[in-house]
Write a structure and sequence with these properties.
heterotrimer; A mainly alpha (about 180); B mainly alpha (about 400); C mainly alpha (about 120); A: about 180 residues; mainly alpha; Four Helix Bundle (Hemerythrin (Met), subunit A); globular; B: about 400 residues; 13 helices
Chain lengths: ~180, ~400, ~120
């Protein structure tokens, strides 16, 4: 087993264990911190796929902003000394059966793909540092991702305005 | 690599590599071992900087305050940090009753972890760098995010509402100032057309970026002071305020680690200022003797670190709402305007030899406009001075005044 | 290029282990005499009053939210800045419009008064 495969297994285990902990922990703040662990595992996976930029983006945006937003939300709206919630409801076993069925169907479908069991191609040693530059060019190239780029900025603007409209109390009910 | 007699790091690395080869280890394993030794050396040296910082801060603070500072323990008090470290290690480690044990213990480790990770991409000289990632600057930003998490963990797990309040305030300040920080970090990236830190230093061959974009440097300076939590943005750890804030329940070595994380963070941002705006290891004769870059780099870093100490000991504290409005109403719009203007100016002057003059002119104009705007804002916000008639204090007011 | 990250990966272990070392040493060396007073939470030397609960302040959430939006924007700007030399004028203008739209959002938040610290 190549070292890369070992690393892949370790980081996938990190992601899966973290995700499992997030959904099963009773204490919400603990769950939020396990989410950080999961996101870090995903960043490691990005590094293994030679996407260093995306790994850094993952840490900066997901761990540095989204996770903090979640944690602040949880901490501010709950009693600090252990917010206990129920983690399962009565459909627990049905959900497990369905999840296993979906997973096995995905696995079987992917098995039909010839590349699934092929060993990974040796990473080309040409200058992969150009990927970030290619990404930058692709963002504003009229033939590539120009429209999505502008749409993203409008989307972010909409998200900002929407969040403020929802979260900010109306003047009347403020005091 | 030209033969450089002072290139200690590579000389030792070659010797170690030959030694390990003679033990018949595979080449890959040797790479891993050497990289591990490199990582251990970098991390340990950075940690040792903290020892130096303890002495330097106390001496500098003393001199600023017209006294001598530690001078008993060793010549010039140089062994004082050892005494401090011994004191911290032998202090009892109290933990509040309902504290969350795992998170409580993890927080100080995470705080130092975040700073140590930043040093992987900082170039000491042209050839001595942990690893020259092509996304260096973004990696540094990512490493900083863990420090914010550490503060939240510390504040929450202490089971103390003042600790939690302090942590929230601290995090609010930190994340707010991350925006002008990232935007001002974007400017050297833009000028060098690369996120790799060593690339940015190499691009300053001849002319340091401070001469191109002084406004970006000023914004970086202010936001990095606020990011680290140094005065005048001292609110997070003000002893007279929320009683030491988020690390009130920590004692002994864990508190020492928080201290280490914060001071090392200040040192790291000083190093970044030197690298991104002042040429890092660039200096005279650095082509013939690349190792001379280490001296230049350390000198520049020490100058900026001294500036942070200077600022801490000189300025009074800024209120939290003033901190926030400074950020959101001044620094962020200013950086956005700067980032809209610099690309446009640079596009037209890309190939011309007047590039630096055009960028400098734009920066100065924008900076002066910003100062003017700030001056007007301060004037507007200032309350009109009320003239009080002198009146005896212990006399109750007259009836008509009481009715008003 | 992956071996560039090897240093980072190893540094993760070193950077996690190095701060743990003084804590372990302290655990061996330092005295441990827990007493009821020492285990109490600190409130300026007084007894704690009420539950450990923080006043719900919308402001923290708003700041985190606005930070998130701008963080994502900055992430998009980094590749754009790195690839600047290869961009036509349209690309430059697209980036400037991107920044402008988000500055517009900031202006909205400012005018609505959400950026005040209450």
């Amino acid at each position: 087993m190549t070292p890369i495969q070992v690393l892949f297994l370790i980081s996938s285990a990190l992601v899966l264990v973290g995700a499992l902990m997030v959904v099963t922990r009773r204490n919400l703040v603990h769950a939020a911190f396990y989410l950080v662990l999961t996101l870090f595992g995903v960043a490691v996976l990005f590094v293994l796929l030679d996407a260093g930029f995306l790994a850094a983006v993952q840490v900066v945006v997901y761990i540095g902003a989204i996770a903090i937003l979640l944690i602040i939300g949880v901490m501010v709206t709950r009693n600090v000394t252990g917010a206990e919630v129920k983690t399962v409801n009565k459909n627990f076993w049905l959900a497990i059966v369905i999840a296993l069925m979906v997973f096995s169907s995905i696995f079987l479908a992917l098995n039909q793909w010839s590349q699934f069991n092929a060993p990974p191609a040796a990473a080309s040693t040409e200058v992969l540092a150009d990927t970030v530059i290619n990404l930058g060019v692709a963002f504003v190239d009229a033939n590539q991702f120009f429209i999505p780029f502008i749409v993203v900025s409008i989307l972010l603007l909409g998200a900002l305005i929407g969040a403020i409209v929802i979260a900010w109390p109306r003047k009347a009910s403020e005091e | 690599m030209d033969s450089d007699p002072f290139d200690l790091v590579n000389i030792i690395a070659e010797w170690l590599r030959n030694l390990l080869l003679s033990w018949n280890l595979s080449a890959d394993l040797i790479d891993v071992i050497l990289t591990f030794i490199g990582a251990a050396v970098v991390a340990t040296m950075v940690f040792m900087v903290f020892i130096f910082q303890i002495w330097f801060e106390r001496k500098a603070a003393a001199r600023f305050q017209d006294r001598i500072g530690p001078n008993r323990v060793g010549p010039w008090g140089l062994f004082q940090p050892i005494a401090d470290a011994l004191k911290m290690i032998t202090k009892e480690d109290t933990m509040p009753r309902n504290a969350d044990k795992v998170i409580y213990n993890l927080a100080p480790i995470l705080a130092v972890f975040s700073v140590l990770m930043m040093w992987a991409v900082i170039p000491f000289t042209k050839n001595w760098i942990g690893t020259d990632l092509n996304i260096g600057v973004l990696y540094i930003a990512a490493a900083g995010s863990f420090g914010i998490l550490a503060i939240l963990m510390a504040g929450w797990s202490s089971n103390n509402k003042y600790s939690l309040l302090g942590a929230f305030r601290g995090v609010a300040q930190l994340i707010s100032y991350e925006i002008p920080l990232f935007l001002s970090l974007l400017v050297p990236v833009f000028l060098a057309r690369s996120m790799g830190v060593n690339d940015i230093v190499k691009a300053q061959d001849g002319m340091w970026f401070i001469l191109f974009v002084p406004l970006a440097f000023v914004i970086y300076l202010i936001s990095s002071l606020a990011e680290v939590g140094r005065s005048p943005f001292d609110l997070l750890e003000a002893e007279s305020e929320i009683v030491a804030g988020y690390h009130v329940e920590y004692s002994g070595m864990k508190f020492g680690l928080f201290q280490a994380g914060e001071w090392l963070h200040a040192f790291t941002f000083g190093a970044l200022a030197a690298i991104l705006f002042f040429g890092g290891w660039q200096g005279p004769f650095v082509d013939q003797y690349p190792s001379l870059g280490l001296v230049y780099f350390l000198a520049k870093t020490m100058i900026f670190y001294f500036i942070t100490i200077w600022s801490r000991l000189t300025f009074p504290r800024v209120r939290i709402d003033q901190i926030m409005s400074l950020n959101w109403k001044f620094l962020v719009p200013l950086s956005l305007l700067m980032l809209m203007g610099i690309p446009i100016v640079d596009y037209f002057f890309k190939a011309s030899p007047w590039r630096w003059a055009a960028l400098l002119a734009f920066n100065l104009v924008l900076g002066l406009l910003a100062l003017e705007y700030a001056r007007r804002g301060v004037k507007r916000g200032r309350r009109p001075r009320v003239k009080f008639e002198p009146r005896p204090v212990a006399v109750p007011p007259k009836d008509d005044e009481a009715a008003a | 290029m992956l071996d560039n990250w090897l240093f980072v990966g190893l540094l993760v272990f070193v950077a996690a282990g190095l701060p743990a070392l003084p804590i372990i040493i302290a655990r061996i060396v330092a005295p441990r005499k827990p007493s009821p007073q020492k285990l109490e939470t600190y409130e300026c030397g007084m007894e704690t009053v009420g539950d450990t609960w923080v006043q719900f302040k919308m402001q923290y959430y708003i700041y985190a939210l606005v930070f998130l939006i701008f963080d994502v924007e900055i992430i998009f700007l980094y590749p754009w800045a790195v690839a600047f030399d290869k961009l036509p004028l349209l690309g430059v203008v697209a980036g400037v419009i991107f920044i402008f739209l988000l500055g517009d959002g900031l202006l909205y938040a400012w005018q609505k008064g959400t950026l005040e610290w209450r």
